[in-house]
Design a protein that fits this description.
Elements lengths: L6 H12 L8 H9 L13 E4 L2 E6 L6 E6 L10 H13 L2 E6 L9 H13 L7 E6 L1 H13 L9 E5 L22 H12 L21 E7 L5 H13 L4 E6 L12 H14 L2
Parallel strand pairs: 3-4, 3-5, 5-6, 6-7, 7-8
Antiparallel strand pairs: 1-2, 2-4
Helix pairs in contact: 2-6
Length: 284
């Protein structure tokens, strides 16, 4: 991958800085958010969704497609699935001959991690007989995917064929400072630290069920991780990748040089290279 950030990526980053959520860098604003959450709802009317065991799930592609992808969306565990995630899932289904499922899972502060485990476990059980199953997620959803695969070992459920994540939040305790919030156009340490506590509920924020950085990964499937070099999660992701390697997992980290959080989901040239890596991993 080129070391030069594209002009379009620079423009996108400037837009992201301008629209950065205020609760990311303000104790007052994040406290207010956790007391009075947005209450945002999934998009309606454009994308198909079905009910699976009481959970709304957006679906894309043919149920009998060659590949199946369970996609867990990001949003710091407080923001609902949005058009960015749904359009990307649509792209995955079209370009990879895949049946893609994107669940609307319980969010903080009204719900906690344990509730989401119940929802995703029930959904996963419907997919374990599918061929070529990929667990994919971005940001908070990516962190959840890694924890969920650690969890699968404890309940004797099979692993997926592979894991693919974008900028996974692997340590909600934010225990490895300094974090450069000022130069991250999307994320902020203050907001994330408080949201992490809310999401964990009665779990310690360093419990592996919310922070996969703190568990072993023996027996996990092939893993592909993307991260932006300039995002505040990057040092934690690097540390987690080293853990995966130490535990014998076949893992590849693709770093977006000079890029920001979840960069493969944005309409920038660098995302094309990321998609090629995904296609190679899933289709060969």
């Amino acid at each position: 991958m080129s070391n030069k950030k594209s002009f379009i990526a620079k423009i996108e980053e400037a837009i992201l800085r301008f629209t950065k959520l205020d609760f990311m860098d303000s104790q007052e604003k994040v406290d207010e958010l956790l007391k009075n959450p947005y209450g945002n709802k999934p998009p309606k009317g454009i994308f198909k969704s079905i009910d699976i065991d009481g959970t709304q799930v957006f679906t894309f592609g043919d149920e009998n497609a060659q590949n199946t992808i369970l996609y867990i969306h990001g949003g710091a565990y407080v923001l609902e699935i949005g058009y960015q995630h749904l359009l990307y899932c649509f792209l995955l289904s079209r370009k990879l001959n895949a049946y893609v499922l994107a669940p609307v899972y319980p969010l903080a502060p009204s719900s906690k991690a344990k509730q989401t485990y119940e929802v995703i476990t029930d959904l996963y059980k419907n997919l374990i007989l599918k061929d070529n199953l990929t667990l994919m997620g971005d940001s908070a959803g990516g962190g959840f995917v890694h924890s969920f695969c650690q969890y699968l070992r404890t309940v004797d459920l099979p692993q997926p064929d592979r894991i693919i994540t974008f900028s996974p939040w692997v340590d909600v305790s934010m225990s490895n400072p300094p974090y450069d919030s000022e130069n991250d156009p999307i994320l902020g340490e203050i907001g994330l630290r408080e949201i992490g506590k809310s999401w964990a509920g009665d779990l310690d924020t360093q419990d592996w069920r919310v922070s996969p950085l703190f568990d072993d990964n023996v027996g996990l499937p092939d893993t592909l991780i993307f991260a932006g070099e300039n995002e505040i999660f990057y040092q934690d992701i690097e540390k987690y990748v080293e853990n995966l390697k130490s535990d014998g997992v076949n893992v590849k980290l693709v770093t977006g040089s000079g890029l920001f959080h979840i960069y493969p989901l944005f309409p920038i040239p660098e995302a094309i290279g990321a998609f090629k890596e995904i296609k190679k991993e899933i289709i060969g």
